[in-house]
C-alpha cells in the first residue's frame, strides 16, 4: 500500500509539531523545515519510520513524534553520548561493534552482557547513571546508521545471558531493565532490525517462547532466541561478530569494541552545532 499521502501530510505539519514540542532534533537531525540544518530527504526517511512504527496511524504518529522530541529536549541524549564521561564499570556489560560487511540491519550491533555483573547494586544502584550511560550507547549506535542507505538504517541488538540466573536478578536490576526497555520502546521506534537473545537458560527460553505468543507479529519476527552463543553466526555474519559467537574475525568482543572518538567520527552537522552551543553556554 502506498503511504505517500500520509507521509506528505505529516511533513507538511512539521513546523507546527516542532513548535508544540519545543525542540526540533530527532536522531541527530533537525526537523524544523525552516531550520538552517534541515534536510528534507532525511526528514522524510525519519518520518516514514515513525509512520511505520505506529502502523501509519496519523494521530498516533503525531502524538509520539511530539513526545519523542519533548523527551530528547529534556533528557538530552546527545550529551549522554558525546559529552559526558561514564563510569568504566559499565564497559563490561555493554558494547557496540561495527560490522561493515554484514547484511542489511546487521552493520551496527549493540551487545548487552547480563552474566558479567558481579555487583548488581554497584551497576544498577544509581538508576539515572545507568540510564544515561545506556542511552549514550544507543545514540552512538544511531550515529553510525545511514538513513540514506536502506542496508544500514537499522541496527541489531544482542542480549547475552551467559552466566546469568533468572532468580538472581535484584530489585535494582529489575527496575533498571524495566526502565530502559520502556524508554527504548517509547523514544527509539523503528531502529532495531532484530533482537537476539543468546545463551538463554532452559527455563528462560520456555518463558520467552510463551511471551512471544502475546506480542504483535511484526515485533515477534524481530525476536530470535538461541540456546548457545555460537549459533548467532547462523544469523549474523561479518567482521563485527566475535569468535565466541561463531564469528570468523578471530577476535574477542572487547577487541571489536567501538570506542567513540570525536576527532575520528563525523557527527551530523546539527549535532555538532548543538553540542558546541551547549559547551559554549556552560563555559559562559
TrEMBL record:
One of its GO terms (molecular function) is phosphatidylinositol transfer activity. GO terms for cellular component: cortical endoplasmic reticulum; cytosol; endoplasmic reticulum membrane; plasma membrane. It holds the Pfam family CRAL_TRIO. SMART domains: SEC14. Residues 83-253 form the CRAL-TRIO domain. Its main location: cytoplasm. Keywords: Cytoplasm, Endoplasmic reticulum, Heme, Iron, Lipid transport, Membrane, Metal-binding, Microsome, Transport. InterPro entries: CRAL-TRIO_dom, CRAL-TRIO_dom_sf, Sfh5. It is a peripheral membrane protein. It catalyses: a 1,2-diacyl-sn-glycero-3-phospho-(1D-myo-inositol)(in) = a 1,2-diacyl-sn-glycero-3-phospho-(1D-myo-inositol)(out). It is found in: Cytoplasm; Endoplasmic reticulum membrane; Microsome membrane. Its cofactor is heme b. The keyword Metal-binding applies. Transmembrane segments: none annotated. GO terms for biological process: Golgi to plasma membrane protein transport; regulation of exocytosis. Belongs to the SFH5 family. Non-classical phosphatidylinositol (PtdIns) transfer protein (PITP), which exhibits PtdIns-binding/transfer activity in the absence of detectable PtdCho-binding/transfer activity. Regulates PtdIns(4,5)P2 homeostasis at the plasma membrane. Heme-binding protein that may play a role in organic oxidant-induced stress responses. This is Phosphatidylinositol transfer protein SFH5.
Amino acid at each position: 500500500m502506498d503511504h505517500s499521502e500520509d507521509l506528505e501530510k505529516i511533513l507538511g505539519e512539521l513546523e507546527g509539531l516542532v513548535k508544540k514540542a519545543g525542540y526540533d532534533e530527532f536522531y541527530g537531525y533537525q526537523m524544523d523545515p525552516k531550520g538552517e540544518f534541515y534536510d528534507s530527504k532525511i526528514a522524510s526517511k525519519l518520518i516514514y519510520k515513525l509512520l511505520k512504527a505506529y502502523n501509519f496511524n496519523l494521530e498516533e504518529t503525531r502524538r509520539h513524534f511530539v513526545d519523542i522530541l519533548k523527551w530528547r529536549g529534556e533528557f538530552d541524549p546527545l550529551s549522554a553520548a558525546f559529552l559526558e564521561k561514564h563510569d568504566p564499570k559499565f564497559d563490561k556489560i555493554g558494547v557496540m561493534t561495527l560490522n561493515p560487511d554484514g547484511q542489511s540491519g546487521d552493520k551496527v550491533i549493540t551487545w548487552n552482557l547480563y552474566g558479567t555483573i558481579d555487583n548488581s547494586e554497584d551497576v544498577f544502584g544509581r538508576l539515572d547513571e545507568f540510564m544515561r550511560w545506556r542511552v549514550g550507547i544507543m545514540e552512538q549506535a544511531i550515529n553510525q546508521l545511514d538513513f540514506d542507505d536502506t542496508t544500514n538504517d537499522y541496527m541489531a541488538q544482542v542480549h547475552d545471558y551467559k552466566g546469568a540466573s533468572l532468580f538472581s536478578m535484584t530489585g535494582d536490576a529489575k527496575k533498571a531493565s524495566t526502565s530502559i526497555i520502556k524508554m527504548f520502546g517509547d523514544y527509539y521506534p523503528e531502529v532495531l532490525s532484530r533482537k537476539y537473545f543468546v545463551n538463554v537458560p532452559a527455563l528462560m527460553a520456555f518463558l520467552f517462547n510463551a511471551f512471544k505468543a502475546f506480542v504483535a507479529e511484526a515485533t515477534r519476527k524481530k525476536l530470535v532466541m538461541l540456546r548457545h552463543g555460537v549459533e548467532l553466526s547462523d544469523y549474523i555474519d561479518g567482521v563485527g561478530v566475535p569468535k565466541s559467537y561463531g564469528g570468523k574475525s578471530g577476535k574477542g568482543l572487547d577487541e571489536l569494541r567501538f570506542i567513540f572518538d570525536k576527532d575520528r567520527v563525523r557527527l551530523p552537522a546539527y549535532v555538532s552545532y548543538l553540542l558546541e552551543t551547549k559547551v559554549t553556554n556552560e563555559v559562559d
